[in-house]
Amino acid sequence: MRILIAEVDPGFRNILRSLVEEAGHQAVIALDGQQALDQHRSHRCDLLITDWQLPRVDGLALSHLIRKHDGESAYTWIILLTARQDQDDLDESSAAGVDDLLPTPVRRHELLRRLKVARRIVQLQQALAAERAELKYANARMAGDLHAAEQAQRALLPHDLHLPAPWNIAWRYRPCQELAGDLLGVERLDEHHLGLHVFDVSGHGVSSAMMAVQVHRHLSVQAGVGSALLEYRPDGPQMIPPAEVARRLNDLFVRPNSSRFVTLAYAILDLRDGSLDLVSCAHPSPLILRADGRIDRHDIESHPLGILPTKSLIITTWRDRLFPGDRLLFTSDGLIEASNLAKEDFTVDRLADVIRHQPDLELALDQALAAVRDWTNGPPADDQTLLLISRA
Q: Which of 193, 291, 315, 374 could be 189's S-S partner, Cβ–Cβ 3.0 to 4.6 Å?
């Protein structure tokens, strides 16, 4: 160890130096407290042996300043030499950061014994500091990787959406962690049709997010022949009906006895007349908010994807139509099942009530998220996703 000795008396200082070097350590000498502090700051020592009474900066003040200087990056073991032994002195030295009191006059065997103990503790602290540094580095790398993954996931979200009149669209995406199991998409299937989807992979974290990216890929026309939305034929791509889209996804991701599953709501919208073909697989059913204030919903039993063989799936499908003034709302359970302190869910009705009273789509979704945040009085416990399309 590198041991700093702060002692005024030259004879005693030489004795301490000899004993330290006899024990196989490197001795660094300081004639007063300020010199000891300067030595430590320029080249940190593993252990300090200091007299209580020192010129300029006494032993207690020196101990306190070294503790402040070390911070969390290192730890210097401090042995204070003193003839004081009453309780007040012990309490005062402990408060200053002293680890060990060595009575004076110092006995050779006692100092050597204290140095052996100190060496074991210092080595342990150095090992812990090294492990802490490694963990800090690993955490920084992990945080960087999570941020990059988050940015990559967000890049999958809809962008540059320009729909022909009388159609307008808006969406919101609020993960509860860096990475989400929810995703949404808006796909141009052909000149006259949009594919709209919101899905939720069970669980949270990296594994759910990775599966979400895989599911999203198959719900994108950019996947080419890997897309579950289109079938490529010699005469051109053909739209796949929503129920068949669900079956194809299930074939791709089914893992019997797996705890990981996907809930899905998917619709094909005809931009010419507003007709809809919809499917729901254990996902909150899309809502149609009618211009006259009615809310159309289809809460029918269905199965999530990824657990049961496709032939055993119950898939909910229906057809509908958006008329002028109507809106189609997709949501996730992270909103309607968000609970307040009384364990009451926010519910579909509350969500629909907020959205249908705001004519501007963007403001409607912002107000919906704000209402859920006020309801829960805290950060989201689950991913929150909204997709809203209207016919003017």
A: 193
